[in-house]
Write a structure and sequence with these properties.
The structure is a single chain. It contains 5 helices and 10 strands, in the order βαββββββαβαβαβα. The two termini are 25 Å apart. The relative contact order is 0.25.
Length: 178
């Protein structure tokens, strides 16, 4: 069984920052997905989903989408999430996975959920940001895995969490800059 590292915390606690810092410090090849915000004139209008390995991206959710499941003011493009999830978790040569984030938008995709389960059960290390506060469903399932090391950023400073995660990945044989 591989190392599964879960980073959780309230919005703006630094989950994405931890994943970015881990990516900078680990010299091995990452796969997985990132979900950067789309902003127009300072206002958040949606989210993309980016394949870490290829940098290919799709618009995952947007305030102006007319169809798809609603999450807050956004509508999710489930086929787009399916497309990226299928590719992002299938690349040969990936040494570890980054997943930002396992949250309500992404889990509307059964393909995303299935593929994330597969990589969490694989021999490849995973570092995943997980939606904070969900007491049920897939995010809660991931946070409560017996094979996961959980960093809660309400209790742990970002830099300390990054250092510990990098050290954990290093112990699996992945190269780091530290």
């Amino acid at each position: 069984m591989s190392t599964n590292v879960i980073v959780t915390g309230p919005p703006r606690s630094g989950k994405t920052t931890v994943l970015q810092q881990v990516r900078e410090r680990v010299t091995a090849t990452p796969g997985g997905v990132l979900a950067p915000e789309r902003r127009v004139d300072g206002d958040r209008t949606g989210f993309d989903l980016v394949d870490v390995y290829t940098e290919n991206s799709v618009q995952m959710a947007h305030v102006d989408r007319e169809s798809g499941p609603g999450v807050g003011k956004y509508r999710v493009d489930v086929p787009a999430v399916d497309q990226i999830a299928t590719r992002a978790f299938s690349h040969a040569g990936v040494d570890y996975y980054l997943i930002d984030e396992i949250a309500p938008m992404e889990i509307h995709s059964d393909t995303f959920v299935r593929r994330v389960r597969e990589v969490l059960d694989s021999d490849v290390p995973v570092v995943a940001a997980v939606h904070y506060g969900a007491d049920s469903g897939f995010p809660a399932e991931v946070r409560s895995r017996s094979d996961a090391i959980v960093f809660d950023l309400t209790d742990e400073p970002v830099d300390a969490a990054t250092g510990q995660i990098t050290e954990e990945l290093s112990s699996t044989g992945l190269g780091t800059t530290d």
